[in-house]
UniProtKB/TrEMBL annotation:
Keywords: Membrane, Transmembrane, Transmembrane helix. The keyword Membrane applies. The keyword Transmembrane helix applies. This is Integral membrane protein.
Amino acid sequence: MGDWFRRTVIDTGRLPLFCFFAAMVVGFLFIRFSTRMIRAGVRWWPGNVTPGGLHIHHSVFGIGFMLLGGIVGFALSPELAAWRAIAAAVFGVGAALVLDEFAMILRLEDVYWSQEGRESVTAVFVACAVTGLLVLGILPENLIDLIHADDQGGIAGWAAGIALAALNLSLATVTVLKGKLWTGLIGLFFPILLYVGAVRLARPRAPWARWFYHRPGDRWARRLERAQRREKRFHEPVARLGDRLSSLIAGRPS
């Protein structure tokens, strides 16, 4: 395990990224544990920070941590790898605190424990999944195309790289508009998923379905019916499993 970590993380210069990832995961688990203890009214656990009656959300502290970690990380010399890793960890804690209240920031209202608050958990899961792939050295295909274009040089190389990157981004956009967020994001790293997600039916409540499947005509009605059947058969069981996992980690919405 030590040899793998050295080869995969340290020798490749990804130690700061790993520290960011680990700190974000630990920070999210800690803040969710803290809010659940506060919600349960546990007496020995410190309560909310309310100086002068003003409730300070933990995303405010997260912004401070991100500023501190980001500024220090940019200011440090590349040779100070250990200190840059510490700065990345501070940034990761801040990112966890901010993303944990993503739904509140998005809606500008306190939806932390509501069903809409699950968007915060999804945001953290997405950030952790993408960062985890980067820690393992798996780069988005778009970035690889541009790196190859830079290595080859010349107008033809850059044109091909930009065209492939534009194609993948377009397919990812279509996939996400069809209601397949995870397929679109992970597909940036494994493009075959984008081709599958872009050509298959949209989920019935996705923007793509609202734009196209509610048009008059039997063709669109059949597509909407197939999408609804597929939603009940495949997506809803997976969604219930995801909700149970989210409730286990982050608490059940009320």
